[in-house]
Design a protein that fits this description.
It comes from Paraburkholderia lacunae. This is DUF2188 domain-containing protein. The protein is mainly β and about 80 residues long. It has one domain (about 1-75). The protein contains 1 helix and 5 strands, in the order ββββαβ. The chain has one helix at about 35-45, and strands at about 1-10, 10-20, 20-25, 30-35, 70-75. It has a 5-stranded antiparallel sheet, with helices on one face. The longest helix is centred in the middle third of the chain and has 10 residues, at about 35-45. The N and C termini lie close together (about 5 Å).
Length: about 80
């Protein structure tokens, strides 16, 4: 299976296959479930609201909106 990774100055974000679709993670925290990797990338790039990221505004980290710009990782 493949997933996706983006390395930011704050740490790495991952979009990986989950139980009911795709999960976005940062560190050891799950940021949410998404229907597709593209939806997860869009939400992270635009500024995902998540209690685990209260100190970090993802919209300021230059996260690519296009999933094709993320690094492919094999899981």
């Amino acid at each position: 299976m493949k997933g996706f990774r983006f390395g930011s100055p704050q740490g790495a974000f991952y979009i990986l296959p989950g139980q009911d679709g795709w999960e976005a993670t940062f560190g050891n925290e799950t940021l949410g479930e998404f229907s597709s990797p593209q939806q997860a990338a869009d939400d992270l790039a635009r500024g995902l609201t998540c209690p685990h990221l209260s100190e970090v505004d993802t919209s300021t980290l230059e996260i690519p909106e296009k999933i094709g710009d993320w690094e492919i990782v094999h899981v």
